[in-house]
Amino acid sequence: MVAKLLGLTFLYLTTSPFTFTAHVPVSKPYLLLSDVSPVEGSTMWMRCNLENGTGPIQYVWQHETRSGNVTVVAQGSSSVINVTDVNRNHSGWYRCVATNDVNSESSNRLWLDTIFGPDIPRIDVTPYSITERGYSALERETVSLMCQAQSNPASQYVWFYNNSQVYSGPQFTITKILRMHTGDYACLAQNTYLNTRSKKTISLTVYYSPDGSPSCSVEPALNHTALKLLCTWPGGFPSPSLDWTGDLVQA
């Protein structure tokens, strides 16, 4: 308001009845995890921390797998999410995005590494041959036993033959296997971080031919009116079967 008095001009400032509040943009958030290496089956939380930012603030939580696939796992007004019954699929990169009426900011990625295992091992036998007895091999061929059990950290492996330890490592190879190697083979997988273990056992039978050649003989039969041919070939597993060829009459 302006007023004039005795030739002087006066300027009066009046206060507006309206007040204005400046909206503060959200600062770059940073992610906190209660446990960056949780054990499978446990509970944990994630918090999206902000130094500044005028509310209301919305939060979006993103999960990125090793292959680069990004999904939204949660969103809302809470800066904390709880994860119950953590499993191996929760492993990956996490980030949070905070948004208000002014701007939007994303945190840096943080890696979550779920500890688990080992699962029950899987045993692969090469060459692959299976019977009602289990796996089988031919004597003097090379047989490879490969053991795999999902685990984080990676499993450590120990092989047993008929309950006696014979090898350490995922792949146990028997060069020129012999009949004496028939028996039970067990793979023990160990997670040394959790001090947990699991085991799988298979049965391996080694087939082998009888030693030498068949032994045959001729004997008189039917009161010396015919001949009887005899052949034997002892040994071998399974026992050999002998077949005759030619124009023969069986007595």
From TrEMBL:
Pfam families: Ig_3. Residues 29-107, 121-203 form the Ig-like domain. Keywords: Disulfide bond, Glycoprotein, Immunoglobulin domain, Signal. Residues 1-21 form the signal peptide. PROSITE patterns: IG_LIKE. It comes from the Eukaryota. Gene3D superfamilies: Immunoglobulins. The keyword Disulfide bond applies. PANTHER family: CARCINOEMBRYONIC ANTIGEN-RELATED CELL ADHESION MOLECULE 8, V-SET AND IMMUNOGLOBULIN DOMAIN CONTAINING 10 LIKE 2. This is Ig-like domain-containing protein. The lineage of its organism: Eukaryota, Metazoa, Chordata, Craniata, Vertebrata.
